[in-house]
UniProtKB/TrEMBL annotation:
It comes from Comamonas flocculans. It comes from the Bacteria. GTP 1 binds at residues 9-16, 56-60, 119-122. Residues 3-167, 181-354 form the EngA-type G domain. This is GTPase Der. Residues 373-392 are annotated as: Disordered.
Length: 439
């Protein structure tokens, strides 16, 4: 399991800036996707071979009085509780504040591994200004400049050091049975996750087992549907109570992220009465970044009128433009409408995600595509794709080799992606294309 790092600190100390540094997109393709919202509070990154998840908790006031601030503080506290390690960010230019003290007290009480980042330290690494932060009682102050990328690597190493880092690839080892589709239902609180899961488990006469779960590990519910084995990874904090599953824990971002990570297929559940919200788009972005196959289900279809349905189609088109590869279902979990139709899409997405693409076929599709539409010349020379092979699965990666491929336009890359998708029926999964130019 990837370790989770929570970024904590008051507003304006540079948490978002640091977050962006720590989650620098691993794949240019993802960064370039139109419509993928950049304003995110969780993401993933990699240090050497080790991947991690970062959660930016927003401005944290442990003593927030009431209303929305109290709710924010509650969510932050939850994110911290679920994290493996905390990076507490302070602003060395602004100096130590009373609020920093409050946060430090809170963190010390938790006894979580915690490192202190003295941000905005560019040009003042040795400064006496750093010294006052030792007062916080959290040990060494790591001077960093999130804006300039200084000290970030050693900060990260310090944050991850106390954790026994899992060897890369361990996720695959715990993958379980080969022919089992691991799936997760992801979505905001109240979109209807529990209702959908219960409707499925009831109606389809699925064989579900009650499994013990610790607070830290999501429970997994194995079942069978039309001869196909599945394992449902819980995102909603579900526990079995009598005949139905009930959410006993509140919504948990970390649990959702972990479930997405370990699933083959994610059912992204939206609420028709709410449209596509920022949080939906964030979860969608995370699914894409994780390379997970996805089926979109718009729930509570029974509760919206024609006009709202129209609006909804449009907002899906705009806000989830980067998920055009996914099938969309309109369902009512409460009325058990449309929910059975999700299964074929889930299987299809799984097959696409784990599809094997032989080199000769890939190369043939590539060369036929080139013949159909030749890449444009750039500066007197023409890019020349020569052959392609599969570079990975789940998500599928196609590596295209040739000459001057750095001059291929984005439009041309999309054209190629479309041809590969069509040939291999890649519905419901992200597809990554990599281009390698021979020198
Ligand atoms: P957040 O509210 O904690 O998320 O803080 P932001 O990341 O939004 O940063 C707040 C302000 O501090 C912005 O104007 C940033 O440009 C600035 N900032 C962030 N990191 C640095 C840094 O390393 N050095 C300096 N000088 N400014 C920084
Ligand atoms: P979760 O937090 O995502 O697990 O959401 P729940 O399954 O607890 O559902 C939240 C609320 O939405 C409950 O009041 C449900 O009765 C309601 N709900 C769930 N599915 C539907 C649906 O298909 N139509 C309507 N109208 N309400 C629904």
């Amino acid at each position: 399991m990837k370790p989770v790092i929570a970024l904590v600190g008051r507003t304006n100390v540079g948490k978002s800036t640091l977050f962006n540094r720590l989650t620098r997109s691993r794949d240019a393709i993802v960064a370039d996707v139109a419509g993928l919202t950049r304003d995110r509070h969780y993401g993933q990154g990699r240090l050497g071979g080790h991947e991690y998840i970062v959660v930016d908790t927003g401005g944290f006031e442990p003593d927030a009085g009431s209303g929305i601030y109290r709710e924010m503080a509650r969510q932050t506290a939850q994110a911290i509780a679920e994290a493996d390690t905390v990076i507490f960010v302070v602003d060395v230019r602004a100096g130590l504040s009373a609020q920093d003290h409050d946060i430090a007290v809170y963190l010390r009480r938790l006894g979580k591994p915690c490192v202190l980042a003295g941000n905005k330290a560019e040009g003042m690494q040795e400064s006496a200004l750093l010294a006052e932060f030792y007062e916080l009682g959290l040990g060494e102050v790591h001077p960093v400049s999130a804006a300039h990328g200084q000290g970030v690597r050693s900060l990260l190493e310090a944050a991850l050091e106390p954790l026994a880092l899992a060897a890369p690839g361990e996720d695959d080892a715990q993958a379980g049975e080969a022919d089992t589709i691991r799936m997760a239902v992801a979505g905001r609180p109240n979109v209807g996750k529990s209702t959908l899961i219960n409707a499925w488990l009831g109606e389809e006469r699925l064989v579900a087992f009650d499994l013990p779960g610790t607070t830290r590990d999501a429970i997994r519910v194995p079942f069978e549907q039309q001869g196909q084995k599945y394992e449902l990874i819980d995102t909603a904090g579900l526990r079995k109570r009598g005949k139905v599953f009930e959410a006993v824990e509140k919504f948990s971002v970390v649990k959702t992220l972990r479930a997405i990570e370990s699933a083959h297929v994610v059912v992204l559940l939206l609420d028709a009465t709410q449209g596509v919200t920022d949080q939906d788009a964030h979860v969608a972005g995370y699914i894409l970044e994780s390379g997970r196959a996805v089926v979109v289900a718009v729930n509570k279809w029974d509760a919206v009128d024609e006009y709202q349905r129209e609006q909804l189609h449009r907002s899906i088109e705009n806000r989830l433009a980067f998920m055009k590869f996914a099938t969309i279902h309109f369902i009512s979990a409460a009325r058990r409408q449309g929910i059975g139709a999700l299964w074929p899409s889930i299987r299809e997405a799984y097959q696409a995600a784990t599809c094997k693409m032989p080199t000769p076929v890939l190369t043939r599709v590539l060369l036929e595509s080139v013949q159909f539409q030749t890449p444009k010349r750039s500066g007197g020379s023409r890019p020349k794709p020569r052959y392609a092979h599969q570079g990975g699965m789940n998500p599928p990666v196609i590596v295209v080799h040739g000459n001057l491929l750095e001059h291929l336009t984005d439009a041309y890359k999309r054209f190629l992606e479309g041809r590969f998708r069509k040939q291999f029926k890649l519905v419901g999964t992200p597809l990554r294309l990599e281009f390698r130019t021979s020198k």
